[in-house]
Lnb N-terminal periplasmic domain-containing protein (Pseudochelatococcus contaminans), 337 residues
Amino acid sequence: MIRSTTGFFARLALIVLAIAVVGIALFGGMAIHYWLGWPDWVRTTGSWAFPVVVLGLWFVPGHRLWGRRIVALALIAAFFIAYDAKVPIERDWIALQEKRPFAIINGDDVTIVNFRDAIHRSGEQPEVRWTEETFNLSQLEGADIIIQPFGGVKALAHVMLSFGFSDGRHVVVSIEARRVKGGRFDPLAGLFRHEETYPELGTERDLFWQRLARTPPDELQIYPVTASREAVRTYFERILAFANSVNERPRFYSTLWESCMTTLTNLAPESFLSVPWYDIRRWVPGYSLSLFQQVGLVDASLPAEELRHTRRLRDNVTPPWEFPSDAAWSAYVRRDF
């Protein structure tokens, strides 16, 4: 009986190991396909050769099967060592993401370098403006969560933050996959250490109007955060530290682990936002509003669907260049709230 049980678990372990090898071989093939810095022919050949060789060594019956399986495991180990050592490479970035923002912190004073304040006009190329703006952290009054739904798929959305100061200015934070000229965001590539993380820091008249100037305009929802000023300040300081770390050492964007939503969640102090890793809403931004309500971060007096309608920016928003300052336009877009 004991021998039978042992044999069963040994066979089960081999099955599990075989499934893992198949998954890793396919993952490796896709990762090689998206491996920047290699010639196209190397990536194309490697994306097919790696899984074929690994699976052939593991599954083709014949002489010295276990010796071949050790070779397959060695190939897998070599792949993961190289994969872990990958670093983002410089590419031909779009003008809106050409420069990385970073912060110089001196006590309560924070100067954001490469703070973006672009002008977006419908049907035209953006007029990109990079500035240096100084903010006093003692004047940080609060924050808003910004949700931008994508089309008719409820699960898809982009999440941003806007930190407001007593002088009416705001710092918008948007975690993006850095884009190259002529390229588009590829969520599949974002699973294989292909895209670079890009923390956008800019004005509301830039990052909000960039979306509202599209045809048709994107929907934007603004939700004031109920956290304390101390928690908001701690969160803002963590985001600035993250931007500095990315500026000093670029890192990969991940569709799962370091997306617009998961990065902001990972950076949040527990006093601001504490979300269990297993909560699916942590990974699916389109369902994040009910999560924010559940943890007491935004107004929970209305069901999520009703709240969305009350916090949605109205149609026909006046362009920001009709106002004397970013602060004036920010006050204008919130006037109905």
Summary: Residues 281 and 287 are 5 Å apart (CA to CA). Strands lie at 102-106, 109-116, 130-136, 140-149, 157-165, 170-177, 197-202, 221-224.
